[in-house]
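Q: Got a minute? One more chain.
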Amino acid sequence: MVSAAVENGSVTVAGVRPPISDGLPFAAGGGYYDLSWAVVANRTAHTVDIGITYGDSAPNGTAVDYEDLPAADRAALSRLLPPREGAPTDDTIGVSVVYSDADLRESVLAPTQRYDAVVFEGQRYALTVEAPRAVTVATYRYTATEVAPNTSAYVSHLESAYAFTLSGLSGSERSVVESARDDTYYADSTDDEAFATLVDRFRAHEAIQDDGDYGTWLITYEGERYLVDLSYRSFVDQ
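A: Always. Here it is, folded:
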């Protein structure tokens, strides 16, 4: 999807939620691109929860061969079969699958479950299927916008947009930074005033990315560039 958006300028894709959220640019073909999206259409569909058990608990009831299933049912079960290596054999593993009205008319799994098990490559697996639920499926148009044509240009973009100089530190603040520069600094509690003041310093500047709990900043410290990853949620809560 990303490659298509970059190559063509935009691409449309359907989903219950945006498949890619806004965030950092994507590196593609040597360049860097932001992806933005807008909803251009909506339709009603149905979500079906399907579960499968990989162990020896397959029932003695009715079974259907995987290859004989309608296309929508095969596509749904393809997310569960063959079992992934290391998958538990005593638990039911489930997926939520979107079915259109046409899919449901052809399905033998929903809205009425006609088979208790599916046979895949000679192995019988128990099935559980929940009743369909109405859901809105949106059509998203993703648009790619070039941020930088190459890596050096992207570095320049980051520096001009986000870099700031970290200076004028107290002795305790400098101790925190030096510890982080050597490896990682962990604040033992929210009583760590030096770390708390550094959190305020960083949050006063725009981050490259920041979700309210964790962020990444670009700084100059003693003449050198650093990327700083900062986890600070407990300090903001306090």
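A: The two ends are 41 Å apart (CA to CA).
Q: Perfect, thanks.
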